Every structure is written in C-alpha cells, then in structure tokens.
Amino acid sequence: MIDFLAASIRIATPLVFAALGGILSERAGVFAVGLEGMMLMGAFGAVIGAWASASDLLGLAMALAGGAAMGLAVAIVTVRYRADNMVTGLTVNILAAGLTTYLLHVLAGSSAIQVDPLGPWPIPGLSAIPVLGPLLFAHPPLTYLALLGCAGLSFLLYRTQTGLKLRAAGENPEAVFVAGSSPMRLRFTAIICGGAIAGLGGAVLSLQQVGTFTDGMTGGRGYLALASLIVGRWNPWGAAAACLVFGAAEAFELRLQTYGVPVSSYVVQMVPYLIALAVLAGLGRSTKLPAAIGKPL
C-alpha cells in the first residue's frame, strides 16, 4: 500500500505542475486548453537540454523556456488578437505535437533520446520515519518542487496584491483598469508563466520518470490537468488533490497490467479519463467559472 501511494504521488507530479500553470491562466481570464502542448514542449526541451549539455539544470531551464514559448503564442493570439480561446489552445496542442517530432529528428537524428533520469532525493532523517518516510520524504526533486509550487501559488493568489489583481483580471477586468493596472499585461504574464510551469510538468515526464522523449509522450495528461483544476475549483491544493486521484488511478492501472489481469491494457488505460469525465459530469452544474474567462479585453 505504501508503494502504491508513493507511486500515485510520483505519477500525479506532472499533472500538478500543469494544473498550477492552468490555474494561473484561467484565474487571469484565458482558458488553459493548450496545457497539453505546453507540457509536450517542456518534455522535449528538458531532454534536449540535458542531452546536449549533460546538465539537468539546463534541461529544466529549456523545459521552462519551451512551455513559456507556447504560452507566449497563446497570449499573443488570444489576448492581443482576441481569438477564440478553445480553438487557439487546440491549435497549440497540434503545433507542439508536430514541432517536437520534427525537431527531434532534425536535432537528434533519431526517434528517441536517452538521458539519465533524476533519481530519488531522500530527506535525511525524515525518510527513515516508518510509513511516512518512504511515502512523503523519498521522492525525486521535482515532486518536492510541485508541493512547494502549490504553497507558493496559494500564497500569491490569496495573500498578495498581485494575486488579487490577477484574480480580478479573470472576474472584472474593468476594475483592474480602474485601479491603475493593465488587465492585458496581467493576462500576458499569467499565460506565459503558466506555460513555463506546465513545461516543468513535461520535464517531470521526460527527465524524471522515463529519461527519454518520444512522440506525443504526454498522452492527454494536459487534459487531465485541465480537468483537475476545474474539479479543484481553481484552488492549487484542490487541484493537487484531484491530480492525486488521477495519479492513483494510473498507478492502479499499471498494477493491474503487472498482475496479468485478463483485461485489455487499452481498456485499463481509459480508467483515468473515465474518472475525469464522471467527476466533471457530477460537478458540472455547481462549478462556477471566473466571470470574465474567455472574454476578450
């Protein structure tokens, strides 16, 4: 059970990063449909950077840059040119899928690149605690960073003036303008920063979990993250809890395949997405979107 729960946390980590990035964007008033593409560019940038420089830190920097670049594209098209949020997000996802495949073959000349994945960083003393130690204090570094990200974003949104302005940009942009700030600048910044954070989610997949990049390796996780932030009511800790549920579903799926349960693996792989659909259907009527989300300035 401890191994199962620890695996659930590790699997949920990329979803948490993407959900945090999506919360920034949607709190500012722009739908985060492009999370899948931002994660994919982050996953690609992380492996290319680590492979070319033999430095994990540069890989993470490239992941941030790749996600931010996709965020910038979304910001320009949706905020500056007032395009439809949904269409733009889906277009970015398709663009990222094609661009990463092309760049992988151009830069590496192969269909996959192998790097050494980030290993666990047990916290001295705490990792030796029975039960809680291996469950909470023996994870790879980006898992700890995801938890810090939840705390940091919660503080930013609910305890700072910047967070108040950001939330106002998604609820009442006119009030932000009257207060002397630019809602357009706030949305630009939120989308780009959100893209960078989602890019870290992609880095978790490629640089921490598997040590390689393959075509379309995000596999719909950006959409699961989008569902998580809706289920979590745009609250970082609520979204993280939803991500943990989806992580547990995927961990359970992997164990079913290991135990040789006579069910098609394709059917088992649908479980997290079926859970997402069921939860969204159940919460659909009670979910309250930010009032100005998707509305051009």
Automatic annotation (TrEMBL):
Cellular compartments annotated: Cell membrane
Signal sequence annotation: none
Primary location group: membrane
GO annotation, cellular component aspect: plasma membrane
Regions crossing the membrane: 6-24, 31-51, 57-78, 90-115, 135-158, 188-207, 263-283
Lipid bilayer topology: Multi-pass membrane protein
CDD domains tied to this protein: TM_PBP1_transp_TpRbsC_like
GO terms assigned for molecular function: transmembrane transporter activity
Keywords: Cell membrane, Membrane, Transmembrane, Transmembrane helix
One Pfam family this sequence matches: BPD_transp_2
Name this polypeptide is given: ABC transporter permease
InterPro entries in the record: ABC_transp_permease
